[in-house]
Design brief:
With 305 residues, this protein is an alpha+beta fold. The chain is built from nine helices and ten strands.
């Protein structure tokens, strides 16, 4: 099932695409004028449809970005997604792009529908696909994420400072102490490899990553932390990964060097994800309450005594 990430404010998925935008897409040859439009469910951020032509040609996806839906941790940048898909065309790591279009403040992306089931198991396959992404040369003008311990701490602290008093005090009481860690060479990051953004093709094969709205350049621990996050795993598939799955994923993604660096940075990265969950919870997204609990429980297990 094609999904949007567990990320921003809910949007009205049933709203039809603007008629003038649809006509422009047809005039530019990006979509057929006889296609059947079907809303794709699962997204919190953007409006997404599957288009099935009545004649020849396979199904397409039309995705319209929603303005003002960034969060402190996850941007929602349609232009960055379009650039990432073009950059990765032909690799099998992402859906094949057909084109993009901006009309006023509406940004639209069209790409080929990627069949597959939302990822649930097999962390080795996800690590394989993410490692391939990390080996790709990044596209130009992609954002950079910081990985020095004090920078991660400052990023998270800024989010914590925005929380209402009860949540702010809960998070502040668990603020971890930074540990020194060497920075790895920067790589191309997906930026949001949560379970709902990973599709397993029918018949097997390496998982495909979708929803490239927040690609980045930075330390691979950033992608690792988001995939391994107990909160994101709970939201995406109902339960966190176990210890063996976590070890296997880190080993397949980057070996002992990555695993050692991740262990040093994990308390800070976990606190930052907890701050994200609290930020979402404070804005009325009730399912983030259990996600926050899962993240903070993990933080207590790994924090320094």
């Amino acid at each position: 099932m094609q999904r949007d990430p567990e990320r921003e404010r809910p949007v009205d998925q049933a709203a039809p695409p603007p008629l003038d935008l649809r006509r422009r897409l047809e005039q530019d040859g990006l979509i057929p004028d006889d296609a059947q439009w079907t809303v794709l469910s699962g997204g919190r951020t953007n409006r997404v449809w599957r288009l099935d032509p009545r004649g020849d040609g396979g199904p397409l996806v039309c995705k319209i970005g929603s303005a003002g839906t960034d969060t402190p941790l996850f941007p929602n940048d349609p232009a960055a997604e379009a650039a990432a898909l073009v950059h990765l065309a032909g690799t099998g790591l992402a859906p094949e792009p057909l084109g993009s279009l901006c009309e006023g403040d509406v940004a639209c992306l069209v790409y080929r529908f990627q069949p597959g089931a939302t990822w649930k198991t097999d962390v080795a396959g996800v690590a394989q696909s993410l490692a391939r992404v990390h080996r790709c040369k990044p596209p130009p003008r992609v954002r950079r994420v910081r990985a020095a311990p004090d920078e991660i701490l400052k990023d998270a602290a800024r989010v914590v400072a925005q929380l209402p008093p009860g949540l702010r005090e809960r998070l502040a009481a668990l603020c971890p102490r930074p540990r020194a860690a060497e920075h790895a060479a920067d790589v191309f990051l997906h930026g949001d490899p949560v379970p709902g953004n990973i599709l397993c093709p029918p018949g097997g094969g390496a998982p495909v990553l979708i929803d490239w709205q927040c690609p980045a350049i930075g330390d691979p621990v950033h992608d690792a932390a988001i995939f391994l996050s107990p909160a994101m795993q709970r939201l995406g598939r109902g339960r966190p990964l176990d210890a063996a799955e976590r070890r296997q994923f880190l080993h397949r993604l980057g070996g002992e060097a990555l695993a050692a660096r991740f262990a040093l940075l994990e308390p800070l990265l976990t606190w930052r994800m907890a701050a994200h969950c609290a930020w979402r919870l404070a804005r009325g997204e009730a399912d983030y309450a259990a996600a926050l609990d899962a993240e903070l429980e993990h933080l207590k297990q790994i924090a320094d005594p």
